[in-house]
Amino acid sequence: xxxxxxxxxxxxxxxxxxxxxxxxxxxxxxxxxxxxxxxxxxxxxxxxxxxxxxxxxxxxxxxxxxxxxxxxxxxxxxxxxxxxxxxxxxxxxxxxxxxxxxxxxxxxxxxxxxxxxxxxxxxxxxxxxxxxxxxxxxxxxxxxxxxxxxxxxxxxxxxxx
Length: 161
Description:
20% of the residues are buried. By secondary structure, this protein is α+β, with helices and mostly antiparallel strands. A hairpin with an 8-residue loop joins strand 6 and strand 7. The protein has a single domain, classed as Roll (Pnp Oxidase, Chain A), CATH 2.30.110.10. Strands 1, 2, 3, 4, 5, 6, 7, 8 and 9 form a nine-stranded antiparallel sheet that branches. Helices cover 22% and strands 45% of the residues. The protein is globular.
């Protein structure tokens, strides 16, 4: 018999609420498939129009992994709050959080204007300033976009708004 789901877990089904979780995050974690092994890295990111934008060097392990298999899982989590249901019971200590999981395929961006678009979207996640980028700087980085194929959200110890 399956164990009953903890009542503290609530699904987020509203897209605006899931996007709100994403926008409150400073980093995301990208799960990749490296042969038969998982490979997970933290990334700075941008998000707009159901697309996640990343940047990286042109070479390196993550680029090699994504070229072999571009299927990814992206995890976002925020609103962390540590509490105890019973102060003296270790197993009752918990983290409240909100999280979103995105599945998609990483796409390497080579078009200069689209790379600039990705950079602008990423920087909007961290600053209200407008930035200028030199052509050599843009040419020197790899922009990766991940259109959302599926998205799910969850809260733990929060009640959905």
